[in-house]
Every structure is written in structure tokens, then in C-alpha cells.
Design goal:
257 residues, alpha+beta, four-stranded mixed sheet, two-stranded antiparallel sheet, 48% helix
């Protein structure tokens, strides 16, 4: 059966096969993006002269198949159809796709609360790595009174604290190199991406620029004020902290898989 409908933009009467109901196509007259409704008529012969969209739909299906052969697609930020990340114009709706829109279509930008919870998890993890050694140091210090030499317990505690700190640092570094995630970001299922390429940021941007360079700036300015301003930047449109601006990164939520 045949569906007859009017273009909502230019008013032109169009027709398409009812098997195409729900598909998105461009009006051949004004090129507006339309969804074919589910409104079949009883007889095609009774229809007035209309524009047949079957050829257009076939063309769109070919484009979709071509995109499906690629390694990765992203949804068009305007019509939500799958397109190649290299596209600058959507082949479905004809809209120009800006770089910022491509970034946003990659995945949902991480919520500020998730980022804060990730920071808390990282802090807690750092404490847990050195907590056993610090506990032994405190126990050794309590027995060190009136002794000419430091007790073995105190020495063991210092060594264990150092080893715990190194172990925590190595784990954080491993995660940042392999997945652009810290321990906290791993548990909160968020990830650091390169702002320009939408790929995992890697060690230089996710650690050296975000942590080391940003930390040095804080130390040579007013650290508490810098930390406050850095944190407040997460409430801008792109949820990018000041250290994200410095490193050229942003943080997104990732799926369970």
C-alpha cells in the first residue's frame, strides 16, 4: 500500500510505500528532513500527482549500508542517523556538522557529580595505599620513647608507606596509559578524551598536562584559589575544568561494556 503525506515545510504532497513508514528522508522539493508517517491509503490510483520518494529512500539505504561497512559511526547531532566521523555534512539531513557537535555526539559528557565522586575515590585510594605503613609508623613512634635508636617497627612502617605510595602511583599510571582513566574514573565509568580527536587522551594529556602542569600552576599561584576556580569551571557548557582547558581534554561517561 501507499502512504500519502504532506511536507511539513513546503506543503508538497509526497508518497512512499507503507513498508518505508518511520524512515527519515529529505523532501525533494525543499530538502527538509521528514519522517514518513504510517498512514496508508486504500488505492494508489486515487492519489493526486505526487512526488515518489522510493528512489530517495533507496539512495539513503545505500548510504546507510556504506556507513555500516566502516569501523565506527557516530549519530548525526541533528537527525541521529549513523554517519562516518569524517563527514562534515550529514548525507541524510544535509546539515553541516561542526567539530563541537561531533565531540558531543561521541558520548554523554560526564556529570560534575560523577567527576567529584571519582576525585573522592582517587583520594580514598591514595590514603588506603599508605594507611598500613602510617599505622605501623605510629605504633613504632609510640615505642620509640627513651630509645637511643629508632625501633625496627618504625623503619618497617616508613618502608611500607613508601612502597604503598609507589604501588598506588604505578596503578594510576597504568590506568591512565591504557584507558585514560584514574582509579576513581574507572569505578565511576568515566574517561578522559582528547578534545580534538575524541580518542583516549593518553599519558601526556591525561597525566602530565592535567596533573603535573596544572599542579605546578597552582603551586606558583594561590593553590586554594586555583583549585576552587579549576573546580568551578566544570559547570560550563562543556563540563571542562581549567585543567581540561590546559590539557586539551574533556571527560565523558562510558557504557557498561
Amino acid at each position: 500500500m501507499t502512504i500519502r503525506f504532506d511536507c511539513q515545510f513546503c506543503g508538497k504532497t509526497l508518497k512512499a510505500d507503507d513498508t518505508k513508514a518511520g524512515k527519515k528522508v529529505k523532501c525533494p522539493s525543499c530538502e527538509g528532513l521528514l519522517s514518513i508517517p504510517d498512514l496508508p491509503v486504500s488505492a494508489e490510483a486515487a492519489l493526486p500527482e505526487t512526488e515518489d520518494l522510493d528512489d530517495d529512500i533507496a539512495e539513503e539505504g545505500t548510504k546507510s549500508a556504506e556507513v555500516a561497512k566502516g569501523k565506527r559511526t557516530i549519530p548525526c547531532p541533528m537527525c541521529d542517523e549513523p554517519i562516518s566521523p569524517r563527514e562534515t555534512t550529514c548525507p541524510y539531513c544535509g546539515e553541516e556538522i561542526k567539530a563541537k557537535q561531533k565531540r558531543r555526539s561521541r558520548g554523554p559528557i560526564a556529570d560534575p557529580m560523577k567527576r567529584f565522586m571519582g576525585f573522592l575515590v582517587d583520594t580514598l585510594a591514595g590514603v588506603l595505599f599508605v594507611a598500613p605503613g602510617i599505622g605501623i609508623i605510629l605504633a613504632g613512634a609510640a615505642t620509640a620513647q627513651d630509645q637511643p635508636e629508632p625501633p625496627m617497627l618504625l623503619i618497617v612502617g616508613i618502608l611500607l608507606t613508601g612502597l604503598g605510595g609507589v604501588a598506588g602511583f604505578v596503578i594510576q599510571l597504568y590506568l591512565l596509559i591504557n584507558s585514560s582513566q584514574s582509579i576513581g574514573k574507572y569505578f565511576m565509568k568515566i574517561q578522559i578524551l582528547d578534545y580534538e580527536t575524541n580518542k583516549p587522551a593518553g599519558l601526556v594529556k591525561s597525566f602530565l598536562l592535567r596533573s603535573i602542569v596544572s599542579g605546578l600552576i597552582g603551586q606558583f599561584t594561590c593553590a586554594p584559589l586555583y583549585f576552587l576556580v579549576d573546580s568551578l569551571f566544570v559547570f560550563n557548557d562543556e563540563r571542562r575544568c581549567l585543567h581540561d582547558q590546559i590539557a586539551g581534554t574533556y571527560v565523558v561517561e562510558i557504557s557498561e561494556s
